[in-house]
Amino acid sequence: MTCASITLARRERQAVLLSVAAVAVALLLGALLVAAIGVPLPDAIAAFADGAWGSPYAIAASINRSLVFALIGLGFVLANRANLTNVGGEGQIAIGGVAATAVCLIGGVARLPFGLAFIIPTLAACLAGGLWGGLVGWLKVRVGTNEVISSLMLSFIAVWLLYGSVQSEALLRQPMTTSSTLPESLEIPDPTKLPLLTGDAGMPLHVGLPLALLLAAAVALVLHRTVFGLRLRAVGLNPLAARRAGIAIAPSIVGVFFAAGALGGLAGAMMLQGEQYSLKAGFSSGYGFDGLVVGLLARGSVTGVLAGALLFGFMRSGGINMEMVAAVPSALVLVMQGVIIVTLAGAARWMDGPGGAR
Amino acid sequence: MLAVFAGSSLRLAVPLVLGATGELVSERAGVLNMSVEGMMLTGAFAGAVGSVASGSPMLGLLIGVVAVLPVALLQAFLSITLRANQVVTGIGINILVLGATTLAYREIFGGRSRTEVPGFDPWHPPGLADIPLFGDAVFTQVWLVYLALALVLIVAVVLRHTALGLALHAAGAEPKAVDQSGLSVTAVRYGAVLFAGMMSAIGGCFLSIGDIHTFTEGMTSGAGYLAIAAVIFGNWRVGRALLACLLFGTATALQFQLPALGIELPNALLIMLPYLMALLAVSGLVGRQTAPAHLNRPWSR
């Protein structure tokens, strides 16, 4: 083991310690706030635990949320390897959701054999998300548009596209039978829903779980063991040198944004086909931004993405239940999340050490 | 009818104008301050609370502007001193503020009440409001509207004609030159972020104690992001950013006006329009865009 890798290992350990400390501080703050609100702490904790992991259903719901954060986080890490910041997760989820809904509801799709009924809509969502993300890369290489700005604008556009598509009967809104018909799509047919792992609706873990884990492994492999990963790194560290070295920069940038977008689209498909089954306004519910934060806090590590995704997934679920059962506003979880983000973002430079990759 | 429409467009544009002008100064200095949304919300909340507590909207406004300072300092400390990723600190602060204000609001006012808070009354500017036909409908506004326009003018003059403006510009375009001239890039950027915070807070106060005289949870609902879009659409120029805000305000007013006129246009399209315009602008489809060269890049010697 070389000297450099020992320091690296120590830094890694410090980073993990710091992350744990930030979470602990946030939890402590949460407890103090609960006390300040005047809710007995044990009640609040019981409600939180119940909602996060208290039943098979709660566990599955938390994990399904985490899957979405993980996929967006993976996309972020991938693009970030080339020193690009993808803020487009929220929009890619929305576009994926729209595409998956549209394809699920096409007449013949539900009758396709061999599981194609759910695979085709999922692939459509990946493609749509990929194109939406790829657009960011394309703008970057063609006109030099700052990717932060374009992906952020595309996020808002996609969210409102989704809103518009469930408001109009000509698009995805279910047929209006009464004046109280909600502005949402029809429920997708059963064959297009993602198969459940347990076959039991009481624990709705779906095939998205193994798929996401597989993709996480694939991203780790691409980043550390492939030529494409090396190219991304070269482009990120010094685009000029990379070009001189004969690396085609433009395809790398467009490609990595396409991949990140496809992961986002897949996240949207999983939310729709694995959990919600009909498209509603506000579908993406800020998960894209949560996922972005997960990706950033992971500091390039795929394991970090998975850990962060689980943390945020369980926290969200627990917070929602705390509001319903113990009358603690779920805004509390927002405060805790904010504290974690701000602390770890602030400490990122220090954790990367002098001359860190970013 | 048209005059009322123009008046409400102006009214809806004002929070954006304030936020965008502050954001423009910050971006010119090189800090992509994504926490405008959180800063506006802080102002709206503290302004409302201060106004209720003191019974005076004027004191409320003051409290709103002061209350944003810790938030702005946090943003500045993270993104300038600690050189953290500016996008993420912004999103983090927005989440934090949304959570904190919602929590505090429920504690102070209870449940989901919509307590009326003392606010500013519309002002009839003599002369302007007396113009027949449209004067009253367009120009009778809360005085903050006129303050906003005056502030924009001041910022435009300072940026263009003073040494301070030059320093701000250089901090975002060529920070090294600022450093070598003996000025502190850090100080310039801190000042810019604090200014953005105060402008956003006034914009937030306009929402709560100027316009609707109450506070609702997350009441800025994306106005901060629209302000950022306006800066981009405005190509980082004060005049064009102001125009962009007025345009966005008009698009928002249209959402309420079109159904009344019996015109069926999807709401989503109108809400989306500002972001679409901003995207087209940065894509180089509407003239050449020139973002500050060191935007979103931390400075270190």
- How would you describe the shape of chain B? globular
Helical/strand content category of chain A: mainly alpha
Instruction: Extract low-pLDDT stretches of chain B.
Output: none
- What's the count of strands of chain B? 2
**What characterizes the major β-sheet of chain B?**
2 strands, antiparallel
**Structural Rg of chain A:** 21 Å
Q: Structural class per helix/strand content of chain B?
A: mainly alpha
| Global mean pLDDT of chain B | 87
Secondary structure tally, helices of chain A: 13
- Kindly state the number of beta strands of chain A: 0
CA(first)-CA(last) distance of chain A = 24 Å
User: What is the number of helices of chain B?
Assistant: 12
Instruction: Give the oligomeric state.
Output: heterodimer
Helix content of chain A: over 70%
Biggest sheet statistics of chain A: none
Task: Kindly report how far apart the N and C termini of chain B lie.
Answer: 57 Å
Using only C-alpha atoms, the radius of gyration of chain B works out to: 19 Å
Model description:
The complex is a heterodimer of chains A (358) and B (301). By secondary structure, chain A is mainly α. Chain A contains 13 helices and no strands. Chain A has helices at residues 3-37, 41-53, 56-81, 89-104, 116-143, 147-167, 208-225, 227-237, 239-244, 249-276, 287-297, 302-326, 331-352. Chain B has a two-stranded antiparallel sheet. The radius of gyration of chain B is 19 Å and the shape is globular. The model of chain B has no long low-confidence stretch (mean pLDDT 87). Chain B is built from 12 helices and 2 strands. In chain B, α10 packs across α11 and α11 (238-261) packs antiparallel against α12. By secondary structure, chain B is mainly α. The N and C termini of chain B lie far apart (57 Å). At the A-B interface, α1, α6, α11 and α13 of A face α3, α4, α10 and α12 of B.
